[in-house]
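Section 5.1 Outputs to date
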Amino acid sequence: MLAKRAVTFALCSRPSVRALSSTIVRRDAVPASTKVNYEEKYAEKLRRRAQEQGKSVEQLRAELKEQEKQRRLQRLKEESSKSSGTPEAPLPAKSRAESSSAAPQSSTAAVRKDSSPVKPLSSMFNLDKILETPHTPDQISVLWRAYHGSRSGGTGRGYLCAALPVKTYEKMLDVATKYPRFVIPVPRENAQVGEDSKEPAYEFYLMEWGFHGHPPEPSTSGDLFSQNQPSSNPQTSTILFTPLQEYKLRTSFATPYLVVTHYTDLAKTHGLVLLRGEITPSAAASSPSVGASEDGGRYMLSQQDAQLLAIHVQRFYLWNEGSEERAALLKAFHETPADFKWEELLKHTDFSA
């Protein structure tokens, strides 16, 4: 069934059989809405600030939510960097020889000139060489997988990667701008709801889209005028996946266990959007995930669970024929939260059915 998906995610390590345990998930553990209710808690302050800035309360509340996501993402980047101690290691000698066109040639390429918390694509790919030497989309996809396969001492653990057709990404982006939040259940096979119950247990993750503007279209170093041209690339985006219980307890201080970034720099030149998933190292979060027992607890989430979360993004945000029920669930979560039924959600996240 997974082979029919629009995108195949490259797992850089082989999933292992692992013992699973979980906190019991009951009906009342999944709220109808997980939105932070700023208006209820700070109604008067919001109205006063909105009036001072000449904005509506809704506009100000949307800005506050976006700032909250940006702070969480930036804090995660800083904590992940501290936990690793050193930046990502360069490609091994063999991989460098095979992927020389992808390796960045100078540290200046990795420095952002804007306020985006997203790590720039130029810190991983030498975009000048990719443009100077013709590369097909398939070749770029191979280089992208090779780069991530060389991470973590050549094991690739802690990362996901994929190359999406730009049309696929644009379809998901259109839906995500309208419905940027959702909850995804992850099954916990060895956990039980009750002592004598045979019902499966699930751990719910809150997913949040963030949008970071249109990256400039890459050009060769000799092209002095391209930087002044407006970009026609789609927006770069991130998706934060945080355990729902963790988010309920810590809200803006909750650490995402998985961050998925969609790089759109090559969308117009090569018709590709490059996906990168980064699993949070265990030292950067408050407590391990119930499914993070593999890799010796080095990461807050297992490779297998990270892949499952990434696949569900397509299932609920890539609307095609046959996805009407999943689209209705996503709409209900935002538009009519009282009608949202998490039991219906489980029917569409069970690959064993």
